[in-house]
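User: I'm designing a mutation panel for Rhomboid family intramembrane serine protease and want to avoid disrupting the core. Could you give me a predicted structure to guide residue selection? Please restate the sequence first so the numbering is unambiguous.

Assistant: Good idea. Sequence first, for numbering, then the predicted structure tokens:
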Amino acid sequence: MDRMWKRSKNSINLVIVVCNILVFLAVTLTGGTESSRHMMDCGAAYAPLIESGEYYRLFTSMFLHFGIQHLINNMLLLLFLGDYLERAVGKIRYLVIYLGGGLVGNLCSYLYELFLMKTGEAPAVSAGASGAIFSAVGAMLVLLAFRKGRLEDLTFRRMAVMAVLSLLVGFQSSNVDNFAHIGGFLAGAVLMAVLYPGMARIRKRGKRP
């Protein structure tokens, strides 16, 4: 754990984790994270409200979690994966991948909710950092592909297995926003594919005598 802390110190990833924890504590103290009504009041995603113009929910919902287990699961994965990605791509690129992928994931979830509403289903209240985390997963897979399958002690095969298992667990579980997962994953992969060529050019210039 000490090694993980040293890797995370003064990093964007650690700031994101701390923000998620602080928001969770604030919501817990003001009404509870298990209350859908209170989570909506705090900025959770809810398709009818987003449709009415409250687009900020696509962003704020990324920092809200339903219950302590939801928070712990997401933050442990983010501490592990986010540190690798941030060290590899830098703080700004990592922030773009995390927030950009999270927003796209939530947008995909919102569009799916609108479709369900048209079929007569009641819209769900959704929240969580998993769309942004899956964006980091998608980005890491593309990065590993560019880096010939290895980054530090991570391999492409290991990441691919983790990604597939995570997606499968989501589809087999209830109350999981799979469209946010898939949207975030694809967005992260695309963002990494766009950002990587510039990173490679910078590395080449840095190696010149």
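For picking mutation sites, this is relevant: Residues 1-10 have pLDDT under 50 and may be disordered. The chain is about 75% helix and 5% strand.
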